[in-house]
Amino acid sequence: MKTELNLVSALLLSVATATATAQVKPIQTPTETIRLNDEDTPRRVVVQLPGGKAKDAPKGSFEATWESVKENYVVPEWFMDAKFGIFMHWGVYSVPAAGSEWYPKHMYNGMLKYHTETWGNPKDFGYKDFIPMFKAEHFDPEAWADLFVEAGAKYVIPTAEHHDGFALYDSDLTEWDAVEKGPHRDLIGDLSKAVRAKGLKFGISNHRIENWDFMYPGGTNEHDLFDPVYAGLYGPPQKPSAVGSAMGAGTDSNGNPAHPQSDEFLEEWLARAQEIVDKYHPDLYYFDNGVNSRSLDPWKLRFAQYYYNSAEQWGKQVSIQTKSDAYLYGTIKDYERQGKAPTEYEERYWQVDDPIGHKFGYVQGLQLQTSGNVIRSLVENISKNGNLCLNISPKADGTIPEDQQAVLREVGRWLRENGEGVYGTRAWKVFGEGESVEHNKAPNEWRFTKKGDNELFAFALDWGGGDVEIKSFTLEKAGRVKRVELLGEKGRLKFEQRESGLLIKAPERKDNKNDIRVFKIQIAR
After folding, report:
1. Fewer CB near the terminus (10 Å): N or C of the chain?
2. With contact defined as beta carbons under 8 Å apart, do 121 and 170 qualify?
3. Interstrand relation of 494-498 and 501-505 (parallel, antiparallel or unpaired)
4. How many CB atoms lie within 10 A of CB 505?
5. What was the pLDDT predicted at 243?
6. CB of 241 within 8 A of CB of 19?
7. Cα–Cα distance between 158 and 152 in angstroms, integer?
8. Verdict on whether the full-model pTM lies above 0.85
């Protein structure tokens, strides 16, 4: 059952204590907007937990130590086989569809003028007022799942809760979720069932830890953020402290790792993270930069213990995903945006999350990548021991815009022809050659993958048709080549393995010369 917020207690505790703990439930009685100066910011209201603590982890191999996590964790084999996934930013922020998915912050700050002119003064029309407009009335999870399969994706990661504090799942710890308000359905639950029914893996991303101070109003004293009626959604947001904001790693005055959140808030954060584990059994669990600080290790390790021991009981291979060095072990390292992706092979398996548009959340006038750009990113990543998780941006009504669908379908078309060189492969000992490869210069740009010990795949990034040579595939480096094919074409190609490389007698191109073509090379063993 949902928990209850006592208004009088919240108001008193906001002045008297550093962190208020109270029970929360839906409240219908309207109250006056509270306008306070920075120094009068009410203290954070958190859910009262039994004993003030999140649950203990199930029994299993993992303990809440880095040594234990290092010893017991392995990257799921299915993830290394999958290569291509779908990420998504979808939530209440999709209603205003302006600025970015950070609109809930910017509307009280840098976009205050825009918000006031478009929607009204935030004391009268705050972020909470977008929630009834987030209806997702056309959301069809089965159709979404069909699209993701057509796109060639093997896993899907929606945002279960973004920085704004509104949960898209059915929570017992807050009334501010998609079942109680807005769409009045379990968006995460419905999508997980549809995706898994199609054989795809299902993960979630959780940005709850950033909610601590994310929406703090720096641009106005006229707002609804400190109204105790909405404390379950807003927090209220705390003023960013001397140790930094909740958006990433901070330090204290002595340069030691530090974080601004209270212990009570972090216990609630852990409890809510555990709730998602228990209800949805996610195959992947993604955290944003807010968990990066070393000072948060006690809570992060307790989560790892809870999640991984739970997965042992389910009999599933799962993984946490984080950025930077948030987790020393027990995670798949994620790079936000393709521009930050590794440019060389990395021993530790990794992933890039990259938006299909110039923003992660849906905004009007979203500028999209081409399918060719997406495919190039995918090829670059898999050649260097990584995956691509392409973020899409659904609209508030639950539709995926047609132009985004078109990009996904084009990627899927390419993968149906060339997926043999993608799925289930691993990076080769040399990731590629070409003018852009400093340690392996060559006339043409190639990227490589391997499958087992006797199959190599060469991705031609700039091949215009006709005979072409791969410098890296000499007898000494690759072994004796016994067969060459061009994926998507019938029959084998003639070739000559020389001291300078593998010369392929390839046909002239009749297709789109901008498409990346893939040669399959079989090695005699």
Report:
1. N
2. no
3. antiparallel
4. 12
5. 87
6. no
7. 17
8. yes
Structure tokens belonging to residue 482: 């016994």
Strands ordered across the beta sheet of 468-470: 468-470, 501-505, 494-498
Question: Could you tell me the two tokens for 154?
Answer: 């093997």
- How is residue 150 written in tokens? 């057509």
Residue 96 amino acid letter: P
User: Which residues, other chains included, contact 491 with Cβ-Cβ below 8 Å and sequence gap of 6+?
Assistant: 485
* Pairing outcome for strands 426-433 and 155-161: unpaired
> Is the separation of the CB atoms in 458 and 521 below 8 Å?
yes
pLDDT of residue 244: 84
- pLDDT for 512: 81
Q: Is the N-terminal amide bond of 394 cis, ω within 30° of 0?
A: no
H or E, element range at 76: none
Residues 493 and 481: their CA atoms lie apart, in Å, by 12
Please name the amino acid found at residue 39: E
Q: Is 431 helix (H, G, I), strand (E, B) or coil?
A: strand
Q: Which two tokens mark 470?
A: 């791969």
What is the C-alpha separation between 410 and 500, in angstroms, rounded?
36
How confident is the chain (525 residues) per 10-residue block, as mean pLDDT? 40 36 33 40 95 98 98 98 99 98 98 98 98 98 99 99 98 98 98 98 98 94 97 96 88 93 98 98 98 98 99 98 98 98 98 98 98 98 99 98 98 98 98 97 98 98 96 98 97 97 95 90 94
How far is the C-alpha of 343 from the C-alpha of 304, rounded, in Å? 29
